[in-house]
Design the sequence.
């Protein structure tokens, strides 16, 4: 079955959802990083298949990502992804520069992803009057392609075509921390979301 191309009004509505959700996520990340400014790009809406979604993260470059499945009115995955060096910088910031083992560093990033995801889904939930809950985070280091494949494989329903709401963030730190927030929705969930928004 082909995926119908959304109208301009539907794309605008999806971008607004991404803007609201990712904006709250960026604010949560800023608080976790001691109030450092986190700038967010204009969100994009991408209709793609799982094999093509990897390009959103840089193909085969090494990366770290934490993702959480979404339950409630939407089916999908929320992903916090960064180049490997940025992930290491975030770990250091979250732990206040303390020397710790890898398990503690992984735990800090997973908890940050959980807080960021909860902020994003809470904002989208208020917009839609849906109760949206994140699962326990999964954290992995691999190529960007492998991470996207692993995350998208967790999308319930028909994941042959997915809708990705994507925004890039840049945190004012030394070294700077940049990455991406991706909300990957199974196509029926994206239709339900648009219907909920009345477009």
Sequence:
């Amino acid at each position: 079955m082909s995926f119908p191309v959304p109208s301009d009004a539907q794309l605008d509505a999806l971008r607004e959802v991404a803007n609201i959700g990712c904006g709250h996520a960026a604010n949560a990340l800023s608080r976790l990083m001691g109030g450092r400014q986190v700038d967010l790009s204009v969100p994009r809406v991408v209709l793609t298949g799982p094999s093509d979604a990897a390009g959103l993260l840089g193909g085969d470059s090494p990366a770290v990502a934490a993702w959480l499945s979404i339950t409630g009115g939407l089916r999908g995955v929320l992903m916090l992804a960064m180049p490997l060096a940025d992930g290491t910088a975030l770990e250091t910031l979250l732990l206040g520069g303390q020397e710790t083992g890898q398990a503690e560093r992984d735990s800090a990033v997973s908890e940050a992803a959980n807080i960021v995801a909860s902020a994003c889904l809470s904002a989208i939930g208020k917009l839609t009057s849906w109760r949206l809950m994140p699962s326990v985070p999964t954290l992995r280091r691999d190529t960007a392609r492998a991470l996207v494949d692993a995350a998208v494989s967790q999308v319930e329903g028909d994941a042959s075509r997915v809708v990705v709401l994507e925004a890039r963030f840049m945190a004012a730190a030394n070294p700077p921390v940049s990455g991406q927030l991706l909300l990957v929705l199974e196509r029926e969930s994206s239709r339900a979301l648009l219907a909920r928004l009345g477009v």
The domain at 8-193 is CATH 3.40.1550.10 (Chemotaxis protein chec). Residues 45 and 94 are 30 Å apart (CA to CA). The beta strands are 38-40, 44-48, 62-71, 76-83, 133-134, 138-143, 162-171, 177-186.
